[in-house]
Amino acid sequence: MDIAQRDASGFAQPRNIGVVLSNLGTPDGTDYWSMRRYLAEFLSDRRVIETPRLLWFFVLNFLILTTRPRRKGKDYATIWNRERDESPLKTITRSQAKKLQESLQDRRSNNGRAKVIVEWGMRYGNPSLEAAIERLSAQGCDRILFVPLYPQYSAATSATACDSIFEILSSMRNQPCLRVAPPYYEDDFYIEEIARSVTTRLAQIDFEPEVTVVSYHGMPMETRAKGDPYYSHCKRTTELLGRRLRLSPDRLIMTFQSRFGGAEWLKPYTDEAIKDLASRGIKRVAVLTPGFSADCLETIEEIGGENAEYFFAAGGEAFARIDCLNDSDGGMRVIDAIVRRELSGWL
User: For the stretch 223-253, what's the b/e string if a residue is b when 16 or more beta carbons lie within 10 angstroms of its beta carbon?
Assistant: First the structure.
């Protein structure tokens, strides 16, 4: 619908409202070249890797991208959605957008005419954020709510997603009005649904964990020193979950996973903490990953595969991985609450 279109009375028709759900991204396939394209885009982001550019150019192109694509491709192959030929993250994010659209199907703007249209896009890989904005623009959206699905803010996740959106808009002559949903690491509805998912999962297994590990994606220690609030957001989420679940600090511990390279990252490291628990005689653990809004390689393979093996090898006896909220009823309640709150005044 072009902005110049008018109704029978001669007044311009109301423009629609767009919502874009966004997650980190996914390779198009598990083969070498698909993985290489994805990793090259991801690891070329200055928000993600802050190493001096010239040095990083040689490290990335002559070391990392020659070997890592094959290794990560094998990891992705263990979790790949073969029916759709895509990663679980892509499957889940699509479903989140579809369910949100159904939830907002009958929602209209203040004047009762403009509707809400939901799209989704990835910061890296496909479908792109640019394609999502193009689709919304083609459907007459002059107001867009951008929702980065990262509960805890970090420059390497939330900020770079915003950078991408701003860059896309910078090339548009007729820019839509843009809102960005803030991080929701301490919002009541988020904490409640995470706690509910933990309680539900533990009721389904045949053991009671002695320790529950709350694992977040790691970040270089340097980012915290530079003022990134990510660590404090993770700590706050963990504290609130501990209160809600009534677990003492020795039974609910915070760790960080997925470190990369030789620099020091946020501690304690998940893999080392898992091994240490088993070596100290802890036989039963559960692990949840509340920093991820959808299950992906880091939660399914790294936690449910690698870290479970570490635990058993060190003497552990029972290990449970707790799913992310994904597109479950609880997960959709969180996303729906964020979107409805941030659309206030437009709806």
Answer: bbeeebbbbebbeebbebbbebbebeeeebb
- Encode burial over 260-285: b for 16+ CB neighbours within 10 A, e otherwise: eeeeebbeebbbebbbebbeeebbbb
Which amino acid would we find at residue 213? Answer: V
Query: How confident is the model over 103-159, as pLDDT tens digits?
Result: 998 766 555 678 999 999 999 999 999 999 999 999 999 999 999 999 999 999 999
CB 293 within 8 A of CB 149: yes
- pTM to 2 decimals? 0.93
Contact 336, 103 (CB under 8 A): yes
Burial class (CB in 10 A: 0-12, 13-18, 19+), 115: middle
